[in-house]
Design a protein that fits this description.
The complex is a heterodimer of chains A (235) and B (289). With 235 residues, chain A is of the alpha/beta class. Chain A folds into two domains: 138 residues, P-loop containing nucleotide triphosphate hydrolases (Rossmann fold); 75 residues, no CATH class. In chain A, strands 6-7-8-3-9-10 form a six-stranded mixed β-sheet, with helices on both faces. A four-stranded antiparallel β-sheet of chain A has the order 2-1-4-5, covered by helices on one side. In chain A, strand 7, helix 8 and strand 8 form a beta-alpha-beta unit. The longest helix of chain A is centred in the C-terminal third of the chain and has 16 residues. With 289 residues, chain B is mostly helical. Chain B has a single domain, classed as ABC transporter involved in vitamin B12 uptake, BtuC, CATH 1.10.3470. Chain B has a two-stranded antiparallel ribbon with strand order 1-2. The longest helix of chain B is centred in the first third of the chain and has 32 residues. Chain B is globular. The interface between A and B is medium-sized, with 28 and 20 residues.
Amino acid sequence: MLLELSQVSASYGSVPALGNVSITVGEGEAVGLLGANGAGKSTTLRAISGLVRLTSGTITFDGAKLAALPPHKITELGIAHVPEGRQVFPEMSVQENLEIGSYAPRAKAERARSLALVYAIFPRLAERRGQLAGTMSGGEQQMLAVGRGLMLKPRLLMLDEPSLGLAPVMTDVTFEKIQEIHKLGTAILLVEQNVSRALTLVERAYVLESGRVIMQGQSAELAGNKDVQTAYLGI
Amino acid sequence: MLETLAQAVINGLLIGGIYALVSIGVTLIFGVVKIVNFAQGEFVMIGMYLSFFLATQFAVDPVVSLVITMPVLFSVGVLIQHFLIRRVLGQNDMPQIFLTFALSLLLVNLALMLFSANYRTVHTWYSDEALHLGGLYIPLAKLFAFALAMVLSAALWAFLHTTDLGKAMRAAAQNREVAQLMGINPNRVFCVALGVALALAGAAGSLLMPFYPAYPLVGQVFVLMAFVAVVLGTLGNILGALVASLMMGVAESLGIQFIGADSGLIVVFLMLLLTLALRPSGLAGGRAR
C-alpha cells in the first residue's frame, strides 16, 4: 500500500473529528472520500498532511510512519495536498505559485520539466503565467492549485473539494484534468461532496459520516447502493 | 523660498532612507512572522555601538563596518527567532507583545550599564563634507547613508522576488498553513525574516554613525518613525513602508523648516492620524503585499 491509515482518531480541542478511520490508497490508484459537509473528509486529509495531530492510530506512507513528522517533511515525501477553497498565494504570479509548488528538494531539480507538464495540461495557466493569482477566476485558481500540487511530482495527490464553488462546466473541465493526471500514474485521494461526479472518476471510495467510515467499496457498487443513492445521489 | 523648500525636501529624503531601513525590517517581521518587534530600534542602537567600537578600536570606517554589523545582527536575529519568538508563536498576542517589549527594555538597560548614557560620536573624513549643487547643500555622510539604504532595499526586493527562499518567505506571509504544504519549514523562513530585518537595523546603525550620536535610547527615535511608516505604508507591505518612510522624512523636515524646530514629529503624527481616519488599512490599502 502507498498510503495506509489505521484506526486514526483526531479531535479539534475537545471536539472529536475522526473516530477510528482506516483507509488505504494503492500505488497509482484513485480513491474517493465522500460524504456530507462536516463528515470529517477534510480533517482526514489534514491529518495525513500533519496539519492535524492524531489522538490515536497510525498513518504510513510507503512504509514510513507520518505521525511524528511536521507538515513540510510530509510534503517532501511526495504527498501533495490541494487544499479546500484553492488557497493559491494571491499576491504572487501564476508562475511563482507553480515554482513554490516545487520548493521541496525532491521536486526542485525537476522544476523546468514539471512546469512544462503543468502548462501542457493547463494551457490557460501558461497564458496567464505573469498574472497575480488572486485576480483570476475561481476556476482558474482551482487549475492553479492543482497545477501547484503537480509541481511536487507527487506520488499521491490529495484534492479537497476541487468542484467547490465552480460552475458545472468548470467542474467538468477540472474533473477531466484530474482524470488526465491520474492516467499519468499519480495516485489520487479525492474528497468530494459531489458524490455522483466523484464516483465517475475514482475506482474505489469510502463514505464518511460524523468522522467515521460507514461504507466502502468499488465505485460501481456504491453507485448502485440504495442507501448511497437516497443519502447522496438524490435518487 | 523655492530653494529652502527644495533643501527641506532633500534633508527629509536623506533621513527618510534610514527610517526606511528600520521600517522595512519591522514590516518584514510583521508580514512573515505576524509579530510586532518593539525592539527593532534597539538593534539600530546595537549596530551603532558596534560601528563605534570598530571605528575607535580598529579604525574601521562606520560605513565599511556594514560588512560586519549586518552579518552579526543577522545571526542575532536567527537566534532570537529560534530561541525566543518560536516559543510564543501560536499563543495569544500578549506573550508576543511582552516578549519583544521586554527585549527592548533589557537591551536599553544593558547598554546603559555597559556604555553609560553618554553620547558617542565617530568623526570621519566625510562627516563635515558636503556637495554644493547650486544653492543646495547635501551632506556626504547622509548621502552615503541614503544611497546605501536604497541599495539594500533594492537588494531585499530582489531577494524576495528572485530566490526560492525569498519566494518562500512571501508565500509564508500570505498563507502560513499552505506554505507548509509546499514543503516550506516555517521556523526556517521566520529565522531568515528576523535575520534580514535585524541586519537592516544594524546597517541603519552603521550608516547613522558618521553623523548621529550613539546612546542607549537612540533606537526609540527611529522605531517611532518606523512604526508610523509601517502603518502608513500598510502593515506587511515593504514597498509601502519604503515610500511612507521617505514621505515621513520629508514631512518631518518640512515641519521643522516651516513651522518650527520642534514640530517635526507633530506633522508626522498628524499624517498618521489622518491616514488612520481616512484610510485605516494604510496608503497602499487592501491586503499585505
